[in-house]
Task: structure prediction
Amino acid sequence: MERRVMSDTVFERLPQEATAPPSPTNPPRRSVAWKFVAALLGGIPAVITFGVLAGVAYWGYQHDWTLPKFSAMNGEVPKGKEDWCAEHGVPESVCVECDTDLMPKPEPVGWCKQFGVHECPLCHPEVAQTATPPVPTKADFARAERAVTFTDRPENNRKCQMHRRRVQFVSKEAADKVGIEVEPVWTVPVTESVAGNGEAGYDQTRIARLSARLPGSVWKVFKQQGEPVKAGDLLALIDAADVGKAKAELLQAFASLQLKTQSFASISSSGGAVAEARVREAEAAVREAEIRLDAARQSLVNLGMPLGGDLQKRTPAQLEAGVRFLGLSPEVVKTLDSVRASTNLLPLVAPMEGVIVSRDVVAGEVVDSSKLLFTVADARRMWVTLDLRLEDAKLVALGQTVRFRPDGGTEASGKITWVSTEADPKTRTVKLRASVENAAGRLRANTFGAGQVVLREETEAVVVPTEAVQWEGCCHVVFVRDKDYLKDGSPKVFHVRTVRLGAKDGKNTEIIAGVVPGELVVTKGSTALRAELLKNNLGEGCTCGK
Result:
């Protein structure tokens, strides 16, 4: 009985489940086959779409369909379906590199052995891109010759063929859009030099360091530091006992000479009453007295107190008055107390014209010959000592101009008077010395600064902006604008020109040969032209000679 009831129950539930309506929470069950068929039918539209597109693409390919160019979308009609030179970046119909008849290249003039460039406009003015061919002068050739032979210059490869290339733009507007700017080649004064750090100091042949010749005490000081002096000006008086002794020896020698001279005269006039030996002894005594007087006189000269005139013609009183204030000028003697003033005064005088740059003495100070009292220097001419690198020192020579600018000061110039024959063992630099005029006194001793040794000066050197010069792997080149660039219908061409470089100052570069004044070279944008020039050589390195 239970089994039957259970079957009835199950039988009754099945119809209820089958007839229940589907709902979002109770979706109908689908078989795997039904799902596969549904997916297949749903993808038919996409397959049809892709098939149609593929068919259209194939049909267009068979009939040479192409997408419209940017110029056509802007209303410009292309001249031909293949009118474009991919190698040179311009329409093939106007490409002067592909069709040289559009702009024939001049006959090559070859390599200039003298200046190391291709197509030298100095030797062949017809290659210059100027309105009228230039006329080089002897001065132009002399300038270039001086520059190229002065020192080692960067060299160009003789086999390089890049100078035969030309860079072309579709139009002037296209070149302007790239950022091409040009500047003229011009002439300016150029100085080629080597630099070094240096120091200014006094000319050691024009400086005097003064001390007392004898020990003593300073009696009076007449000059102060910074005062100008002339040769012979009195700086100070030293009271030295040895001066008094030297003066006393002079007076004693003078008195002895007078006495012995009188004795010799008396003996000589005796008329033979005195023996000949006695006469010779008297004569010898006179000679000894003269020598002693000369020695005493020289002692005073050595102390800076010369006694002029013939002493033997003076009386003892005259000689004593003369040696009392020996070495002092009448003006100074007038300032002294004739009663209290010492006769031991030793004058300290300036030996040269100059300025007292140091004074280390006061009145009453006890001094000796080891103490420096005054320093007098003639600052109208100074010494400048520079330290140069070894590789630069080989370029300098005696007589070359040196320009020195001290820190915070004005420039001074002079000539090299000495170049060291050895290098500093620590810094590996070579010293040189220049004598510099300093009449205005603007250059001060013991000041540091930067110096330049002028190696070469040109008043009219050919220069271009440094940014105009490019290295293309073989040679230094500039891009010269064609002389007919601005004419209507003329190709917008820039010529590749090999140049020989000279001096540089950071902003400008001297061109020894390769361009002439009046030509226009590319400055801003020259890097882009170099890239255009070399784009077909990527990965090949230098293609010189190919």
